[in-house]
Inverse folding.
């Protein structure tokens, strides 16, 4: 009887937390998953990304449950720039792109609690969606480095921000992509190095 109960519980967990592309999302409170798909040797990495840095990245975003692509800077042919760890993007990015070298390529799997929660974003990201990103870090700059183009984008929004990151200053403070609550600050800024587990699927 105990064996049957254990088997039933295991099967239930497997059903709830299915594999990527099987038609299901991960539980909203799942852990952030970080995999390194392209590593940069320490000898070629004089600086790693840290809180407040301005990062320039290329990314492709897909829905976990069906592998449907919802956004891609590569398709637009224009990298995306943002300050990491300060609430300008979803928490999954703020956490998952720290301690990263220029030239490094990561895959991050973001549960909805660290993405857009129950509300989703626009027409392409439904509520409760687990998101999968492949992100390549192109450049790290000082966070206080002035960039006039970024300034106007922050104030008025740009097409490159799309549904994924909202549309400018008015949107960035609300929803799951906004500034962290006080209770989450320690969790966001006192993080260990990301896991080096390699997620092969994408």
């Amino acid at each position: 009887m105990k064996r049957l109960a254990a088997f039933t519980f295991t099967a239930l967990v497997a059903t709830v937390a299915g594999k990527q592309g099987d038609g299901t999302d991960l539980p909203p409170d799942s852990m952030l998953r970080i995999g390194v798909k392209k590593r940069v040797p320490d000898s070629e990495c004089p600086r790693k990304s840290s809180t407040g840095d301005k990062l320039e990245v290329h990314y492709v975003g897909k829905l976990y449950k069906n592998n449907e692509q919802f956004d891609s800077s590569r398709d637009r042919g224009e990298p995306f720039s943002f300050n990491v760890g300060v609430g300008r993007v979803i928490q999954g990015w703020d956490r998952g792109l720290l301690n990263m070298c220029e030239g490094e390529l990561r895959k991050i799997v973001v549960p909805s609690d660290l993405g857009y929660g129950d509300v989703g974003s626009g027409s392409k990201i439904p509520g409760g969606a687990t998101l999968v990103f492949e992100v390549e870090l192109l450049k790290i700059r000082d966070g206080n480095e002035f960039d006039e183009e970024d300034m106007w984008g922050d104030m008025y929004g740009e097409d490159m921000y799309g549904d994924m990151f909202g549309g400018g200053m008015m949107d960035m403070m609300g929803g799951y992509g906004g500034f962290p609550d006080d209770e989450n600050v320690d969790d966001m800024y006192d993080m260990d190095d990301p896991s080096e587990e390699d997620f092969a699927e994408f």
